[in-house]
Amino acid sequence: MRDRVPLPGTESQPLCIGSTVLDHLYFSSGKTHLIKHPCEKNLALYLGRHIFLTKDNFESSLIPFSIPTSMQVGTPEVTSAHFAGSVLLLVVNQKVYVYDYEANLWTASTGIEHPVSHVSGDNCCYSGNSFCMDISNSVFAYLHGDQISQANIYFSNSRGYRFQKYAELVGTLGGIFSFHSLSQVGLLLVDKQMAMFSYSDHPLNSSFGLPFDYDRAFDILIAPGQKGILIFWFEKNLLVSRNSGQLVESVQVREGHRILYNSILKANITIHSVAANENELAVLTQENNLYYGSLGIQSRSLIKFSDQNIWSQEAVLMFTDVGILEILTPLPDVIFPAFDFQKCLLNIQALLMDPQLQAGICKVELLQGEFENKMYTIDMNSQLELTALMIPRPGTLPVPLVMVSNPHSLGLQAVIYEDGYTYDGNTKHRLNISLKQQHHWGRANPNFTSSIKRPTISTITLDIANKEISCVDLKPLTALISVGCDLEKKIVIQKKRGGGCVDIWAPGGAHPCLCPVSHREAYDPNFQGQQAKEDLKVYYPYEKLGCPLLAYYDIPWKPVVELWREGKFQEVVEAEYVLLEMNGLFTYTYSLTAGMAGCSAQPQNWTTITDTASFSWDRENYMSCHDPDHHEPLRWPDVPYQILGGPTENKVVFDQRNGIYIFFISIVDPHYSYCHLETTFSVYVYGAFPLSIFPPEITIVLLTVATLLSVWLAYMIPQLLHTEQGHEVNSFWVRLYQRCRKSCACLWGSSPRHVVRSSASP
After folding, report:
1. Start and end of every CATSPERD beta-propeller domain (predicted)?
2. pTM score, two decimals?
């Protein structure tokens, strides 16, 4: 049997359940922690001398959490834990293990080659959105306190099952986090009792967050809801950030409107447990004190409740609802190995009624909106309209505030319009909020935002300015905004509005599937414009494409592209797009060259795209030749310009060939939509005469000579017939004709009376 490190004050013994031998897990820190799953409200993990996992919010008795001995963890010491979607991640003895609590399965993570102490991540509770699922799948693993020059940081996009090396960095590591509300990865750098955040992407990667005091290692709690709220704490201090670490501030302690201490550090208390939900913060101290505060837009202070006998070494705080706080304490059973949990229920609103607290009266009676706790999508060039209702207390004039959590990445701006009206004697205020990316409103410097091409998320919060702490039930209204692809959008090639859809087959008849043969000199299966070695029979998918568009071969042509959403026409697409003939036909070109299109750099084409081993040409790899940041010089201005739409009048020019073309179309403009808008359609090209066998120059010369000769003969023959030689020639032809008639009459057995004799003299 392996040696085991005993728990503080106890002996660590293996637990046998059936045929499975389990090792009791324990939390290495002397503090107690509670980790609640932000989406599954009844799921939580208690970390202390014993570890407990509950699925019913500690309503039932629990056996201490254990790991199978077969996992060979060695010392069952837990240093960090994190819920990643439907699994629980635990760092046990400097290795990461995955526990699927639904299937009751343990798995050791792969890809981590060095010791780690912490895992960090976030969760998104809107399961119907793919971008939201990516948030829950993203996890970091690292060794806290390492020199960053020697640190090994690992990243997983599979909920912790598989990790890979993230980056080589420089500095001292205080933690690494995925700030989805800022579209950044944040690295906490610690140097000489000061700390600051470094960020991964433009524009924040060119600067740091403001430095703050870091004389002790902080536990960092990310408040749920993707608002970018961070809570830093250790026994003697408490800090908060509302913008993912860009600005970290001390938390004040006040009584009524009077500030007692500018920071917890000066209050001379010892913090034992911290709990937070989307809007509230609570602190339990070893001095039997309970502190409470709001995580509103402008709030950064706590209020102290009256002294109560509520603290114990094993106690931990947990919010179960808005304004409802529980103090949990595990109690061992003297007979059974299970633990029960003592619950001390606190109603914050009732506690604030104590006049000694001078909490004041909330100035707002009602704040509600249909968008609360919902998720919306804003695509490029789209706008979102939200409404809310506010009823102020009579005689007050509260000021509503709206905050967007992700301005750097999105350039997303919220504009609030307020109008009031009276109903049933109460003044009501209707709040109208318009959301749109500043990039498309023309109100933002492009350097302010990160890559506008990249989809991301944001959180919008509607709150009241300088809201009283007594407004416990008046929680801010929050919605999650996915700035990305609107899945209801699609593109359609216009067939009726001037597009000319013509059924080339017999009306009412069966539609054949086999199109004319593509000759070897007209197509290339490798899409490189080289002649094939054999002809190709192309089957036409009529059920999918319907009847083709009609285009005359000698007129430059381009399709009319329409944007549709939820079955309704939106607009004609003017953005840039590209075409590719699906069967490799190359008997067409473009009306413009790179030089004629005004390119300042060499434009992309299908050849360069396929040379990069990426056969997909879309918004993610498109680079405009008109972009001043595109530094590739224009070396071949005479090559065909293969991009349609946008600022040019480029069109398709067909060769002298009749037949059906099946085109794939892809919108490549990165500023039109986050969606990959693409489809296929067909075109029937008509009106082309067969190509001449001889060169046209020879044909023209022969026709001219033949015409002149005919004119000359028409003039000379009548003149020659009146000469002696002309009469001899005429007589020759008459005699030849008579002989032929006689021979034919004998051959056919005709009567002599049927023979017409010539009146000419022999």
Report:
1. 23-344
2. 0.74
Rounded to whole angstroms, the Cα distance separating 680 from 658 reads 20
β-pairing verdict for 678-686 and 659-667: antiparallel
Q: How far apart are the first and last CA of the chain?
A: 139
Contacts of 597 (CB under 8 A, 6+ apart): 603, 625, 641, 643, 648, 650
Task: Tell which wins on pLDDT, 748 or 64.
Answer: 64
User: Rounded distance, CA 261 to CA 709, Å?
Assistant: 116
Neighbouring CB atoms inside 10 A of 93's CB total: 18
CATH topology assigned to domain 364-483: Immunoglobulin-like (2.60.40)
CA distance 518 to 344: 81
Q: Which residues pair with 497 in a beta bridge?
A: none
The answer to whether residues 400 and 464 touch, using CB atoms and an 8 Å cutoff, is: yes
- Does the pLDDT at position 675 exceed 60? yes
pLDDT at 536: 65
In the predicted model, is pLDDT for residue 19 greater than 60? no
- 8 Å CB contact between 404 and 297: no
Residue 679 has pLDDT above 70, yes or no: yes
CA distance 443 to 277: 34
CB crowding 615-639: b at 16 or more within 10 Å, else e: eebbbeebebbbeeebeeeeeeeeb
Cα 672-673-677 angle, rounded to 5 deg: 105
Residue 653 has pLDDT above 80, yes or no: yes
Cα separation, 117 vs 2, in Å, equals: 22
282 against 728, higher pLDDT: 282
Backbone angles phi, psi at 229, to 5 degrees: -90, 125
Of 318, 272, 342, the C-alpha closest to 44 is: 318
Those residues with Cβ within 8 angstroms of residue 714's Cβ, 6 or more apart along the chain or in another chain: none
Enter the DSSP assignment of 739: H
**Residue 5 tokens, joined:** 């490190």
Length of the chain: 762
Q: How many helices (H) and strands (E) does the chain have?
A: 8, 49
The string of pLDDT tens digits covering residues 332-370 is 888 888 999 999 999 999 999 888 888 888 989 999 999
What pLDDT is recorded for position 603? 92
E runs forming strands in 465-567: 477-483, 489-493, 549-552, 561-565
Q: What is the mean pLDDT of residues 192-212?
A: 82
Short-list 389, 411, 410, 408, CA closest to 400: 389
Q: Can you give 73-103 as a three-state secondary structure string?
A: CCCCEEEEEEEECCEEEEEECCEEEEEECCC
Work out the number of other CB atoms within 10 angstroms of the CB of residue 262. Answer: 14
Q: How much of the chain, in percent, has pLDDT values that exceed 90?
A: 36
Label each residue of 123-134 as H, E or C: CCCCCCCHHHHH
Residue type, 380: M
